[in-house]
Design brief:
The protein is mainly β and about 150 residues long. About 15% of the residues lie in helices and about 40% in strands.
Length: about 150
């Protein structure tokens, strides 16, 4: 994550922070530029249900797909995305869904996420700089999709 922050710093871009609902947890990052005011990005881990409550009320893949029906990005066996482009509001939870039998490494805005064959992962997209274009890479295939991250306007 620190390498990503350094790369974005050199490119003059603010890093995108992610909150992952899997076993890994990202660390907070920040960036500063001599021409921009200091911008801090923080992440917080979303608590997972305890094993006792998860066993009593497990979510199936079908439940997850229904819950994230309008916030799901699928990756097929050739790393093609469905949909190709998406628009989400800042701090949105989205579902990365591998519909291939082989494991894939999905990179969202420079942050890598490992998905097993037919695996999925829920992440939260967040950035202090909006609107923001986020590229999607899959293994060695670059720019297979794009996300436009927008501000929430109440």
């Amino acid at each position: 994550m620190a390498v990503v922050a350094v790369v974005y710093f050199w490119l003059g871009k603010d890093p995108i922070s992610y909150i992952s609902l899997d076993k890994s947890s990202p660390s907070p990052s920040s960036s500063a530029s001599s021409t921009k005011p200091k911008s801090t990005t923080t992440t917080k881990t979303t608590p997972m249900p305890s094993s006792a409550s998860a066993a009593a009320n497990p979510k199936t893949y079908t439940d997850i797909v229904k819950e994230y029906a309008d916030r799901r990005i699928q990756f097929d066996e050739r790393c093609q995305t469905t949909p190709r482009t998406s628009t989400f509001k800042n701090n949105s939870n989205i579902l990365l869904d591998n519909r291939s039998s082989t494991a894939k490494v999905i990179t969202v805005g420079g942050v890598k996420h490992s998905l097993s064959g037919y695996g999925y992962k829920v992440i939260t997209l967040s950035s202090p700089t909006l609107p923001r274009d986020i590229s999607l890479d899959c293994g060695s295939a670059y720019n297979v999709g794009k996300i436009l991250l927008q501000a929430k306007i109440y």
